[in-house]
Amino acid sequence: MKRPIYYAIFIDDKSKIALLNAFKYLIPENWNQYCDHLTISFGKAKTETVKNYITNFIGHKVSFYIDSFGKSDKAIAVKTSDNIVISENTNAHITLAVNKKCSPKDSNDILNWINIDKIFINGIVDQFPRLHI
């Protein structure tokens, strides 16, 4: 079996459509859209908390809310402060889109976030390459 590149909450199609529809007017046409997961850990989990979260939830459906929106000249993302979500990233977020010259990892550098009305998201905890589709 191939070693996981990362662990994430992979959002379902209904949630993806809801997020993209909610923010489509803020995404420039020439940007690449992503909107498919919230990273828990890139590579091997670095803390016991994250290891336990992955062990206990992998393959399970989870529901959480998005409550902030952030944008830079490189990336657009939404983030959550929901306690059900654990991430080794400073901000637990879903990258919606990136400038064509940029990478989804650039959403980790977004500094300015604004609070928004909660949007509820559903997904499944899994690894990439995916085991539970």
Question: What would you say this structure looks like, in words?
Answer:
This protein is of the alpha+beta class. It has helices spanning 13-23, 48-57, and strands at residues 6-11, 32-33, 37-42, 61-71, 75-79, 93-98, 113-128. The protein has a single domain, classed as 2',3'-cyclic nucleotide 3'-phosphodiesterase superfamily (2',3'-cyclic nucleotide 3'-phosphodiesterase fold, Alpha-Beta Complex). The chain has two helices and seven strands. A seven-stranded antiparallel sheet has the order 2-6-5-4-7-1-3. A hairpin with a 3-residue loop joins strand 4 (61-71) and strand 5.
Gap between N and C termini, in Å? 16 Å
The class by helix and strand makeup works out as alpha+beta
Q: State the helix count.
A: 2
Major β-sheet, in short? 7 strands, antiparallel
How do the strands of the widest beta sheet line up side by side?
2-6-5-4-7-1-3
Fraction of residues in helix:
10-25%
**CA gyration radius, whole angstroms:** 14 Å
**What is the domain total for the residues?**
1
How much β-strand is present in the residues? 35-45%
The global form is globular
- What is the number of beta strands? 7
Uncertain runs = none
What is the chain-wise order of helices and strands? EHEEHEEEE
Notable traits:
2',3'-cyclic nucleotide 3'-phosphodiesterase fold, alpha+beta, 7-stranded antiparallel β-sheet, 133 residues, 2 helices
